[in-house]
UniProtKB/TrEMBL annotation:
SUPFAM superfamilies: (Trans)glycosidases (SSF51445), beta-Galactosidase/glucuronidase domain (SSF49303), Galactose-binding domain-like (SSF49785)
Domain Glycoside hydrolase family 2 catalytic: 350-641
PANTHER family given in the database record: BETA-GLUCURONIDASE
Family: Belongs to the glycosyl hydrolase 2 family.
Gene behind this protein: LOC115628066
Signal peptide positions on this chain: 1-28
This protein's name: Beta-glucuronidase
Keyword annotations: Glycoprotein, Glycosidase, Hydrolase, Lysosome, Signal
Enzyme class, broadest EC rank: hydrolase
Annotated source species: Drosophila lebanonensis
Subcellular location: Lysosome
Record text on subunit structure and interactions: Homotetramer.
Superkingdom: Eukaryota
GO MF annotation list: beta-glucuronidase activity; carbohydrate binding
């Protein structure tokens, strides 16, 4: 294994030149569809009467690999002992991106592997008749994990969880060690893609990572690390689907459970599940016993459907589903609970409906991004962000441009915020066989992780792929067909930036989303060149594919505190006026029934790679990076509540229209 592992790391750093060759020849070849292996397990770790969860978050030891000799740690087997025996280590918080924690430019811009380790005790009480799992919420981009010097798991793809059973690797009643390599290198066959090259510097050469996507390639152990126990035979997977009948007064919860463990093999017929559904008050509203395939249905009288924020006075209603797995002689083997929202989705060539009612999306593209922490999970930030989403009256966001934390998906369920759930394929180009496999795998892992969240209403299979390129059509046909084969209950979209005339991919989608920066990248400074162009482009998309259309990105970089009247690029006045010109277009489009949503770029300012087009990052936020409103936030808030009122008769917050004057005033 060590050889293979060191080979993989070296490959990333050395194969770029070869890859260039491979890609130029492969683009002449036709792409074939490719089968990928599927993920298993990965239920969110929750304790119960039969399970215990232990966090390994906190301070870990950390050391970057030498850029000149990246495979040294693997060759010298650093994972066989504490890292501080071989190198001087520093403390590194988990979860967090490592880039902005120290004051060193070399770490912020490090390319390749970094090493983490920490020691921890496992109680001898855990040595009883059970299994222990090690689970990472996400490590970006590639991870190798050893427990007590033995390889436990490796995983490729940031922003997605992975886990492995470590029962046999742990020392019970004793101290243990976990060692992680995290490699941030992006090449043409990673998702997302990047390029690595050697560039001459003043003293020799540097390995330089470049990428075309517009956010900083933060890396590290980004989300929580858990150890958790399960019984020997346990609930490994739960899949939930819901439906409504009789004017939304009757709900159905369909469940399918998969079991892992010896009891599952030996006494197949003896296994069954007892499932119970509880309302918010903790009262049982339905219960059932599964069939022998461990699937079944619960019927809920007087159901409270899951509604989006401002579409109903009680949005985000969640039930709790308790699943008990029983073996022979009624023996209780395992218990797992999860939240369930009961809702239906449907879509046509002109509408998108939730619980039978048409939806108009008013939301944001976002990033997981903050100072110091980078992309590290932070409950304080998450809570503030959801408070701001509610304050501004948004009902949706897209997880641009990668899967967000599982914890954020739980927040969205609870707050009634609809999610367009995006896989990490951003600026996709150079379509090739290996990329297709990884792209499909990213969607498989995403859908596996998020399929039970009521907040997820759409899958986004890419952001701004090069859709006029050779093979874009066949590539996206494969990706879209694969996505539908995993989940036919949600529509598929992608945020497209190419023109409707040249595009070869959009019509494989169920909903067409387009990104355009009128008044910014196109005709900067020309506020009079926005409204008609937005209307014309949306109309072109509709008549190309006859699918509902969303504007998934529009916006303008804005330096907080810069005021210029008359408005000028980068000023708060310009952002406000640019939004207003878009609103006019959206209202004209809303009269065409097929225009179903508007998404601002971006929720908050965020960090990007260094570039002369970016002043310490992308400043298109409606909120600053510190999550304070820019002037435009107050305008957007008035619009989002007005839309909520028009569509769903929501009430207005008391402070939306501060008193101005006793006279009548005019709104154009
Ligand atoms: C886009 C991209 C987004 C960028 C944005 C911009 O079209 O989808 O990732 O950040 O433009 O501000 O340039």
């Amino acid at each position: 294994m060590c050889l293979q592992c060191s080979f993989e790391i070296l490959t990333i750093l050395m194969c770029n030149a070869l890859l260039g060759l491979y890609l130029s020849s492969s683009s002449a070849l036709d792409l074939q569809d490719i089968t990928i292996s599927k993920s298993r397990g990965m239920l969110y770790p929750r304790d119960s009467e039969t399970r215990e969860v232990r966090s390994l978050d906190g301070m870990w030891n950390f050391v970057p690999a030498d850029e000149e000799y990246p495979s040294q740690g693997v060759n010298d087997q650093w994972y066989k002992d504490n890292l501080n025996k071989v190198r001087k280590v520093i403390g590194m918080p988990v979860p967090a991106s490592y880039n902005d924690i120290t004051t060193k430019q070399s770490l912020r811009d490090h390319v390749g592997a970094v090493w983490y380790d920490r020691n921890f005790f496992v109680s001898r009480l855990w040595a009883k008749d059970q299994r222990v799992w090690l689970r990472f919420g996400s490590v970006h981009y590639k991870a190798f994990v050893w427990v007590n010097g033995e390889l436990a798991v490796k995983h490729e793809m940031g922003h997605l969880p992975f886990e492995a059973e470590v029962t046999h690797l742990l020392k019970y009643g004793s101290e243990n060690r976990i060692t992680v390599i995290c490699d941030n290198a992006l090449i043409q066959t990673t998702v997302p893609q990047g390029k690595i090259s050697e560039v001459a510097n003043d003293n020799g050469v540097s390995i330089v990572q470049s990428y075309s996507f517009d956010f900083f390639n933060y890396a590290g152990i980004h989300r929580s690390v858990h150890l958790y126990t399960t019984p020997k035979t346990f609930i490994e997977e739960v899949e939930i689907n819901t439906d409504l009948a009789n004017d939304n007064s009757l709900g159905y919860v369909y469940y399918t459970i998969s079991v892992n463990g010896s009891a599952a093999n030996q006494a197949d017929n003896a296994l069954y599940a007892r499932v119970q559904l509880y309302n918010r008050e903790g009262e049982q509203v339905a219960n059932a016993t599964s069939d022998a395939k461990l699937s079944g249905m619960l019927q809920v009288e007087k159901v409270k459907p899951w509604w989006p924020y401002l579409m109903h006075p009680d949005p985000g209603y969640l039930y709790e589903l308790k699943i008990e797995l029983h073996g022979a002689n009624e023996e209780l083997l395992d218990i797992y609970r999860l939240n369930v929202g009961i809702r239906t989705l449907s879509w046509t060539s002109t509408t998108f409906n939730i619980n039978g009612k048409p939806v108009y999306f008013r939301g944001f593209g976002r990033h997981e991004d903050a100072d110091v922490r980078g992309k590290g999970l932070d409950y304080a930030l998450l809570t503030r962000d959801f408070n701001l989403l509610r304050w501004i009256g948004a009902n949706a966001y897209r997880t641009s441009h990668y899967p967000y934390s599982e914890e954020s998906m739980q927040f969205a369920d609870r707050h009634g915020i609809m999610i367009i759930d995006e896989c990490p394929s951003v600026d996709t180009e150079n379509y090739n066989q290996a990329l297709l496999g990884k792209h499909k795998s990213s969607l498989e892992q995403l859908i596996h992780r998020d399929r039970n969240h009521p907040s997820v209403v759409m899958w986004s299979i890419a952001n701004e792929p090069s859709t006029r390129e050779k093979n874009a059509d066949i590539y996206f046909e494969y990706v879209a067909t694969f996505t539908r084969s995993l989940d036919s209950s949600r529509p598929i979209t992608a945020a497209i930036s190419g023109s409707a005339i040249e595009d070869k991919a959009a019509c494989y989608l169920d909903i067409v989303s387009f990104n355009r920066y009128n008044g910014w990248y196109s005709n900067p400074g020309r506020l009079d060149m926005i409204t008609k162009r937005v209307i014309d482009e949306a109309t072109a998309w509709y008549y190309k594919c006859y699918k509902p259309v969303i504007m998934s990105e529009y916006g303008a970089d804005t330096l907080e505190g810069l005021h210029l009247q008359p408005s000028f690029l980068w000023s708060e006045e310009y952002q406000t006026e640019l939004f207003s010109r878009h609103f006019k277009a959206f209202d004209a489009l809303r009269r065409q029934k097929w225009f179903i949503g508007e998404f601002v770029w971006n929720f908050a300012d965020f960090k990007t790679a260094q570039s002369y087009t970016r002043v310490a990052g992308n400043k298109k936020g409606v909120f600053t990076r510190a999550r304070q409103p820019k002037a435009v936030a107050h305008l957007l808030r008035k619009r989002y509540f007005a839309l909520g009122h028009d569509m769903d008769q929501c009430s207005f917050p008391d402070d939306l229209y501060p008193y101005i004057a006793a006279s009548r005033w005019h709104i154009r």
